Amino acid sequence: MAERNSSTQSFPSIKLYNTLSHQKEQFTTVVPGKVGMYLCGPTVYKPSHIGHMVGPVIFDTIKRHLVYSGWEVTWVVNITDVDDKLIVESKVRNMSMTALAEEMTADYLDNLSALGVQGIDTMPKATDHIEGIVKFIEGLVQKDCAYPADGDVYFDVAKDEDYGKLTNRSSEKMQGEGGATASRKRSAADFALWKKAKPGEPSWESPWGPGRPGWHIECSAMSEALLGSHFDIHGGGLDLVFPHHENEIAQSESLHECPMATYWMHNGLMQAAGAAGKVGGRPRDGSGTPDDLAATKISKSTGAEPFKELLTRHRPEVIKLLLLSTHYRSPIHFGEEPLGESARALEAFERLFSRYERLCGNSYYTLTDRNRHDGDKAIPEFHGDTKEHVSSLRSRFLEAMDDDFNTAIAVATLFDLIRYINKFIDSEGLEKKKTDSDLETLTHLMLLMRELTGTLGLFLSPPAQTSTGTDGKLLDSLMRLIIELRSRARKTKDFATADLIRDSLTEADIQLEDRAEGTDWSIK
For labelling, which of 67, 253, 291, 321 has a CA lying 20 to 30 Å from the CA of 193? Predict the structure, then answer.
């Protein structure tokens, strides 16, 4: 997407919901014109599932809209490649922790690529930042915010006066790590910054002896290294509000004595559709605390399949459209039925794209993508009622995205734009008689569609073909023969045969579209 020099432009008014304040706030950046954004990434010990894709798709869209609107955005997503789960799984598979992490990271990246998540600038690994993590912990110990204990190091929550501010909890209500470490802690709420190495586990040298970092300190150290001690947006799923993000705030703000992030954004979690209203024993109605909502999420423990298996049944475009059809803070009901609905919705876009290509001879996917400023300048290219209607639709889309990135309303507006463009084609009779003026207007309408879908990261490239080469040509030839036989049946008023052909093709997931100049076919 085209970008502009941030020093020469004004920025639109954007509001976003801040979990820290529990309200929408005006978006203002630490550095004018620039945005630093950090999203907690996966612990790479098993293949990623659909739940791991939600955050990246949402925050990729957020970055797209901010870049489209003129900001320069640096987006960091971390990889946790040292963790108890990794150690256990590597032993089960009889391989090194490093080899397992590399294999699962590659799987994660493949899945992000399939979904068109293209905006991540840096993906730091925890094991590449051990030196910085140790220095971070040393700083907390020197400030008496943390204490060593028999090879471990713990954060002392009693030294942080506003600990619990993200979740509105008091330290007395917090629950830290238990088990064998409990006796070494001053308070049950204290949490590990450094863990003493156990025999046979991966470890690194430190002032407190060999060990490895705790989970929470990794993100504090990596975000500081790449975005600074105070950056703009910290994101993650609702399940990370406590303890992970609460503890990140405590560590970072105790060391740096400034806000870690101005805005804390949390996406709703994936929930299994049609599961009798509950997953994990908690309600799925979107109400309740972050803990309640996190308890309903789809995860490996609740049977989520590897994402690559899901891709064998559903196109990535279908999955992405489903994710964006819900506001990011709401739970996403996920299953075969919602996916089927998303696939049918996707067909409306692709039928329009095919119609445009047939009429104008150009592929939708070759149309120029444009930023917000250039989109503003393009509105005067329309005239009369078309200009008024198009301007209204575009404004509705942008108002939705500027109001806490409401992709649900934005997607709904795209369907209104589809209906308007199809109505324009029909009312002007373009299928029967084309004029240069009407085709020019149609192209301007499709450029607007390209602008808005690109902002959401949708329809970035043509869909993968289901068949290629000789097989594709053979299939097309056979379909043309079947369509010709159906056409002859209709001309001779043999409607029973014509209907049988259509119904049989529908059962085979092949869709026919009758138009004035002929019939086209597509695979559902």
Answer: 291
The DSSP-derived string for 384-431 is: HHHHHHHHHHHHHHHHHHHBT--HHHHHHHHHHHHHHHHHHHHHTTTT
418: which 2 tokens?
């589809």
- State the alpha helices, DSSP H only, in 146-256: 215-227, 246-256
State how far the Cα of 443 lies from the Cα of 421, in Å rounded to an integer. 10
| pLDDT 10s digits, 399-408 | 999 999 999 9
pLDDT tens-digit profile of 385-401?
A: 999 999 999 999 999 99
Q: Which of 147, 211, 154 is nearest to 181 (CA)?
A: 154
H helices within 311-383, ranges in order? 316-324, 336-360, 372-378
Q: Which two tokens stand for residue 457?
A: 């990261």
Segment 204-231 mean pLDDT = 98
Distance (Å, rounded) from C-alpha 284 to C-alpha 346? 26
Length of the chain: 524
As a whole number of angstroms, the distance between CA 474 and CA 1 comes to 38
pLDDT for position 298: 65
Q: Which helix (H) or strand (E) holds 117?
A: none
Provide the total of helices (H) and of strands (E) in the chain, helices listed first.
Answer: 16, 16
Q: Which residues, 6 or more positions from 81, have their beta carbon under 8 angstroms from its beta carbon?
A: 44, 97, 98, 101, 105, 125, 126, 127
Handedness of CA 193, 230, 74, 52 (dihedral sign): positive
Q: Are 233 and 35 in contact (CB under 8 A)?
A: yes
Residues near 85 by beta carbon (within 8 Å), at least 6 away in sequence: 43, 45
Residue 4 vs residues 72, 84, 369, 380: alpha-carbon distances, Å: 9, 45, 14, 21
Check: CB of residue 47 under 8 Å from CB of residue 93: no
With residue 206 as reference, give the H or E element that holds it.
Answer: none
> Which pTM was predicted?
0.87
